[in-house]
Amino acid sequence: MSTKQALSALSRREALLLAAGATIVAAGGVVLKSGTAHADQKMVDEAVMKLIGDKKPAEGKITLELPQIAENGNTVPVGVTVDSPMTADNYVKVVHLFADGNPAPEVASLHFTPMSGKASASTRIRLAGTQNIVAVAEMSDGSVFRAQQEVKVTIGGCGG
Hints:
By secondary structure, the protein is α+β, with helices and mostly antiparallel strands. The chain contains three helices and nine strands.
């Protein structure tokens, strides 16, 4: 019996189940393959340069609140505060967060206005393993600040 005859002998239900199984196998291969790639410091630097262009980020003004050791990489608390008067002439426009060990380096962008009153926010992020968290703050006057801190992830996470 040829392949064509064998396929025509299948019931509609059997053909659908066969197609669904092939799709699941194909999708599973894609997930496994894409889950193994991780960002690195070079990818973070490239993502930062894409946002800020040729501006040179200065150290200071940014305070990161991260645990030194995260027992669960699935929910790592992150707090970021930028020292700024938050006036109409001098305020934080946006703070970008990056992780150099996740599948993609971009984690979050936090937007502020003078009406925010304070450039401070907290959230939870998922980390694939021990890695550096990088914060980049863009100010209203065009200046840019950068801070970095390592978080050691002991279990869990998105892939590690």
